[in-house]
Amino acid sequence: MAMGPNSIMVGKSYRTAGNEIRTVQSIEEGDVVYRAACGAAPAMIARANDQTCSLTEFAAEVEAEVSPGV
Question: Which residues contact 49 (CB under 8 A, 6 or more apart)?
Fold first, then answer.
């Protein structure tokens, strides 16, 4: 189930239906900059490239907040 855009916060990590972990780097002017990795260990996310999408799209694609290191 998708999350609401107001639930997305900088520094938090979220899981998609495809088991991708996305960590939010920044939110500016309705766009989310995040790093994503599948089967993500913290070191994998740290090395991932930044990606950008709209806050609405990001919220629709993630299902839940996850703890760091998950």
Answer: 35
- Kindly report each contact of residues 36-43 with a partner whose C-beta sits within 8 Å and lies 24 or more positions away, as own/partner: 40/70, 41/69, 42/68, 42/69
d(CA 70, CA 56) in angstroms, rounded, equals 24
Each residue of 30-53: pLDDT tens digit? Answer: 999 999 887 655 555 556 789 999
Tens digit of pLDDT for each residue in 14-25?
A: 999 988 889 999
The residue extents of the domains of the chain are: 5-66
Q: How far apart are the first and last CA of the chain?
A: 19
